[in-house]
């Protein structure tokens, strides 16, 4: 049996790790070049994400991820534009973390480095199309000329998944009408003094009455192995942004982000201006519309490729959960591979789109 995975973000490498440990032939393809540094900053993993890492990784690799995680905060706080806390959701330590999993805050680039350790990745290979073969297998074509046949093709290629577009052309990912600019600012004594206390002790969201919001969270490596920073996101309804963000350079993006919060406390804009310019990016906020289960075939999907959700702290863990569940269904199957994939899809669609709805309610 051979499985091809497209997309080496987080879920794709985790699935590859689990399948490789089980002795299954797996090929992982990634459109980015090997020397390209993917974007990313602090992300939260709830206990389901933690359990997924444990299930698929060698124990020493998992322990290394835990060791390099961020210092734990106490929860999530919502602030008004005057930086007064208006609501908080404290997250107490999980009882019996060895069984039920733990909450982790990890640096995405550091996590991805560990997930890619020990597996081969075909870099610089962008998916073009697949074709279904008469024997029930699938043939995948890449833009570098690579052609490979497999028993299963797994789409882990994100919100703009080309595989989803071909396999499920009726699946919809819709714009929410908001755009965001995000980056990170190194934590020094000076920038620490500029950072709201809530962002130094967990995740914080500053929300205005007009749809603007700013997310802030410090990431301090528990091991001391990395450069500590505060991640920030400035988001607003697209109607409030006159510039075409896709046409701006990183300096100009920071300028727009600063202007969007110019009437908020000055320290917030200063944090944005002092960002590591290389870390600054922009995107629009999207969400997937639920869809009924399709007829299972030799192609399936994980993570944002199927259930894109708005940023609410749950998408990464849900994608890792997908990878662990698919790995389990494949490696523990007692019947045909197609039945195992069907069981995975049925469960994944249920909890995946439940998380999509939860993410929408979190900002309503």
Q: What are the low-pLDDT stretches, counting only 5+ consecutive residues below 50?
A: none
Question: What's the mean pLDDT score?
Answer: 93
Tell me the β content: 25-35%
**Helical content, roughly?**
25-40%
> Given the structure, what is the number of helices?
13
Largest sheet: 7 strands, mixed
Tell me the distance between the termini: 45 Å
The topology string of helices and strands comes to EHEEHHEEHEHEEEEEHEHHEEEHHEEHHH
Count of individual beta strands: 17
3D shape: globular
Radius of gyration: 21 Å
Which strand order do you get reading across the main beta sheet? 5-4-13-14-15-12-16
* Helix vs. strand class: alpha/beta
Oligomer: single chain
Describe this structure in words.
- This protein has 364 residues and is an alpha/beta fold.
- The chain is 34% helix and 27% strand.
- Strands 5-4-13-14-15-12-16 form a seven-stranded mixed β-sheet.
- Helix 2 runs parallel beside helix 12.
Main features:
364 residues, alpha/beta, 7-stranded mixed sheet, 5-stranded parallel sheet, 27% strand
Brief summary of the model shown:
This protein is of the alpha/beta class. The chain is built from 13 helices and 17 strands.
Architecture blueprint of SSEs:
Layout: E1 2-6, H1 11-21, E2 25-30, E3 42-45, H2 47-56, H3 59-67, E4 75-79, E5 85-90, H4 97-100, E6 104-107, H5 108-116, E7 121-123, E8 127-132, E9 138-142, E10 147-150, E11 152-155, H6 162-167, E12 173-186, H7 189-194, H8 197-200, E13 202-207, E14 213-219, E15 229-237, H9 250-260, H10 266-273, E16 281-288, E17 299-301, H11 304-307, H12 315-331, H13 337-362
Parallel strand pairs: 1-2, 1-11, 2-7, 4-13, 11-17
Antiparallel strand pairs: 3-6, 4-5, 8-9, 9-10, 12-15, 12-16, 13-14, 14-15
Helix pairs in contact: 1-2, 1-12, 2-12, 3-5, 9-10, 12-13
């Amino acid at each position: 049996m051979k499985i091809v995975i497209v997309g080496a973000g987080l879920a794709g490498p985790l699935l590859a790790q689990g399948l490789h440990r089980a002795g299954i032939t797996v090929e992982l393809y990634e459109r980015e070049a090997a020397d390209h540094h993917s974007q990313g900053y602090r992300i939260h993993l709830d206990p389901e994400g933690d359990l997924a890492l444990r299930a698929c990784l060698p124990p020493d690799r998992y322990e290394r991820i835990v060791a390099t995680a961020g210092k734990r905060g106490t929860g999530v706080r919502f602030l008004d534009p005057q930086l007064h806390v208006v609501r908080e959701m404290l997250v107490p330590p999980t009882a019996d973390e060895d069984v039920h999993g733990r909450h982790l805050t990890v640096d995405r680039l550091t996590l991805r480095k560990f997930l890619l350790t020990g597996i081969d990745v075909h870099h610089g290979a962008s998916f073009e199309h697949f074709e279904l073969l008469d024997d029930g297998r699938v043939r995948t074509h890449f833009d570098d000329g690579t052609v490979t046949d497999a028993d299963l093709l797994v789409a882990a290629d994100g919100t703009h998944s080309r595989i989803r577009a071909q396999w499920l052309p009726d699946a919809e990912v819709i714009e929410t009408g908001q755009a965001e600019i995000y980056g990170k600012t190194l934590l020094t004594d000076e920038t620490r003094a500029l950072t709201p206390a809530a962002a130094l002790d967990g995740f914080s969201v500053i929300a205005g009455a007009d749809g603007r919001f700013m997310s802030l969270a410090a990431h301090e490596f528990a091991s001391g192995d990395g450069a500590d920073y505060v991640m920030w996101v400035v988001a607003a309804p697209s109607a409030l942004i006159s510039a075409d963000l896709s046409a701006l350079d990183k300096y100009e993006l920071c300028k727009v982000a600063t202007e969007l919060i110019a009437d908020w406390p000055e320290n917030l804009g200063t944090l944005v201006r002092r960002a590591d310019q290389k870390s600054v990016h922009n995107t629009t906020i999207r969400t997937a519309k639920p869809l009924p289960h399709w007829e299972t075939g030799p192609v399936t999907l994980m993570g944002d490729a199927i259930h894109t959700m708005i940023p609410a702290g749950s998408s990464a863990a849900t994608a890792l959960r997908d990878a662990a569940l698919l790995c389990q269904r494949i490696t523990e199957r007692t019947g045909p591979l197609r039945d195992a994939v069907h069981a995975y899809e049925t469960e994944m669609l249920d909890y995946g789109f439940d998380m999509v709805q939860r993410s929408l309610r979190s900002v309503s």
